[in-house]
Design a protein that fits this description.
The complex is a heterodimer of chains A (297) and B (250).
Chain A (H helix, E strand, L loop, with lengths): L3 H31 L4 H62 L4 H32 L8 E4 H15 L7 E4 L5 E4 L1 H17 L7 E8 L3 E8 L33 H11 L3 E6 L6 E8 L3
Parallel strand pairs in A: 2-4
Antiparallel strand pairs in A: 1-3, 4-5, 5-7, 6-7
Chain B lengths: L3 E5 L3 H13 L3 E5 L2 H10 L11 E5 L7 H10 L6 E5 L4 H10 L3 E4 L4 H24 L10 E4 L2 E4 L4 E4 L2 E4 L2 H12 L5 E2 H9 L9 H13 L9 E4 L3 E4 L7
Classes of the chains: A alpha+beta (297), B alpha/beta (250).
Chain lengths: 297, 250
């Protein structure tokens, strides 16, 4: 989490840097106007000052980049800590409750259900982190096998509907026939599931998600996941696929996440010579996520 | 009469588990899942929650929207001093200190031991009862006892969690009082920041000792006539702070 104080101090130093560069340029232009006769020295001076300014600009860009990375890293650590500890805390609370209190049979069953759901959530988070590590390592090649993408997407939709207790019709799937691809089953499943889970998370209380699979230009097998939820500003459409990146702003902070999901989606697509992108008409207008894999003939 | 607790927790499973256990302990429990909803119940109190009172609050930190630190901070600024225990997955020393700085009375990290949680809530409620009993006694005049310390026109009342300066009464959080009490107990002697962190909060990890400075800044605002030129809460360069109860007039 980034405090407003820290943001203010960053903005101050960036403005200070920009102001100083402007002063240097103004001073130099003034000096040149006053001493235009000293030709060669003038030329050398221009080159040196331009180099110094370029250096300062590059340095500032680098610093801003590093500061952003650190902030994202901190936010990621906080989010992962929360995502790992919360289900453990819940499971522990229910175990202690069952150990120390008289609980009737119905409640007991309910508590077991909650503990199972929490252990699934914990496992999901651990798998997400381990998968990110594997995708980042060049030596771990995907385990390619012939798959029907439509079928894999169908499985993901079914799993998501059960896991998120989606009402009938809240997640609709339109399969586009047999879509043969050569891909790693676990990775494709993880990518598609991440897209559907995201759509659920950002849909808010009114869940209405449309999932489609189909062929594009005879070359790609495609999955589209459309929601009618939070939407994405135009400027963020590419950034959201970066590792640890999360959109800031009043609406986005209402949804918890680690910033790994979409990174996994794009990494999986790239590892299979495919691609992934997002489309949105803007905040509040829903979004569509698309992932494509080459068709295997 | 049943004590009323407000649990602010957005994780539904945890919230329901807490409700089940706290109700089994005999408390009346209300659960809200956002910081905004908590503030509505505790500060704004529109028509719907008019006159609603809670004896203690269990507050999660990582809430959607306004987080727990912002909530406790707004509560204290608005004069809502209901005893509050922060419950969170973030257990680094810096996080714990941030909670205390914002005005928490106690802090427990997830995963927690159920018995410890209940004992801490009981502790908060007990202190509140003591506070009420002391207030009853102190209605006419606050006597000088071992539970208070007077210097000049200022008096510190440990049980009441109050600092009185002339006619003004400043309510202190438990942690502010603990810092002040520690300095009073070592009156006249320099006390290092590290020692205060260890002795007052029991934190002996590699914590940023400057966290203590924020507490001193707040205490100076209450105690000093000119906080920029402190006479009582003096900085000892390279060490920490020293409380001088009766400074020699310059």
């Amino acid at each position: 989490m980034v405090g407003p104080g820290r943001r203010k101090s960053i903005a101050f130093f960036i403005s200070l840097g920009a102001g100083l560069i402007l002063v240097i340029i103004l001073l130099y232009v003034g000096w040149v106007l006053l001493n235009w006769r000293t030709g060669i020295l003038l030329f050398l001076g221009v080159v040196i000052v331009a180099t110094v300014i370029a250096g300062i600009v590059l340095n500032t860009i680098f610093l801003v980049h590093e500061i952003r990375r650190n902030e994202q890293h901190d936010a990621f650590i906080n989010a992962v800590t929360h995502e790992l500890k919360t289900p453990v805390a819940s499971i522990r609370l229910y175990i202690e409750t069952l150990q120390t209190r008289a609980v009737d049979e119905e409640k007991r069953k309910e508590f077991y259900g909650i503990m199972l759901a929490d252990s699934d959530r914990l496992l999901g988070m651990i798998e997400q982190i381990l998968r990110t590590g594997r995708l980042g390592s060049a030596s771990r090649k995907p385990n390619l096998a012939p798959l029907n993408l439509s079928e894999v997407v169908g499985e993901c939709v079914e799993r998501a509907a059960v896991q998120h207790k989606a009402p009938t019709g809240a997640i609709e799937y339109q399969p586009g026939g047999v879509l043969p691809i050569r891909a790693d089953y676990d990775e494709v499943r993880a990518a598609v599931s991440n897209l559907i889970d995201n759509a659920v998370k950002y849909s808010g209380s009114e869940m209405k998600i449309e999932v489609e699979s189909g062929e594009r230009m005879g070359k790609f097998a495609e999955v589209r996941v459309r929601d009618h939820g939070a939407g994405i500003p135009q400027s963020e459409l590419k950034r959201i696929f970066k590792r640890f990146y999360r959109i800031t702003g009043p609406h986005a902070t209402r949804v918890k996440g680690t910033g790994l999901g979409l990174y996994i989606v794009r990494s999986v697509a790239k590892r299979h010579s495919g691609r992934a992108w997002a489309e949105s008409a803007g905040p509040g207008k829903g979004s569509t996520f698309v992932v494509q894999f080459p068709i295997a003939r | 009469m049943k004590h009323r607790l407000l649990v602010v927790e957005d994780e539904q499973h945890l919230a329901e588990g807490l409700r089940f256990n706290l109700e089994a302990e005999g408390y009346e429990v209300q659960v809200v899942d956002t910081g905004e909803a908590a503030l509505e119940r505790l500060i704004v109190q529109g028509e719907k929650f008019q006159g609603e009172k809670f004896d203690a609050v269990v507050l999660d930190v990582m809430l959607p929207g306004k987080d727990g630190f912002a909530v406790i901070s707004e509560m204290r600024q608005a004069g809502q001093f209901v005893p509050t225990l922060m419950l969170t997955a973030r257990g680094r020393s810096g996080d714990i200190l941030q909670g205390f700085e914002a005005g928490a009375d106690d802090y427990l990290t997830k995963p927690f031991d159920l018995k410890i949680l209940i004992a801490r809530i009981e502790g908060l409620l007990r202190r509140r009862e003591w506070l009420r009993a002391s207030e009853e006694k102190a209605k006419v005049e606050v006597p000088e006892t071992k539970n208070s310390f007077t210097f000049g026109d200022k008096s510190v009342h440990y049980d009441l969690l109050e600092l009185r300066v002339g006619d003004k009464v400043f309510p202190l959080t438990l942690m502010e009082m603990n810092v002040l009490r520690y300095l009073i107990e070592h009156e006249g002697k320099p006390v290092s920041r590290k020692t205060m962190l260890e002795e007052v909060w029991g934190l002996n990890e590699d914590t940023d000792t400057r966290a203590i400075d924020n507490f001193i800044v707040r205490l100076r605002r209450y105690i000093e006539a000119d906080p920029a030129k402190p006479k009582h809460l003096r900085t000892v360069r390279g060490v920490g702070y020293r409380l001088v109860a009766f400074p020699a007039e310059a």
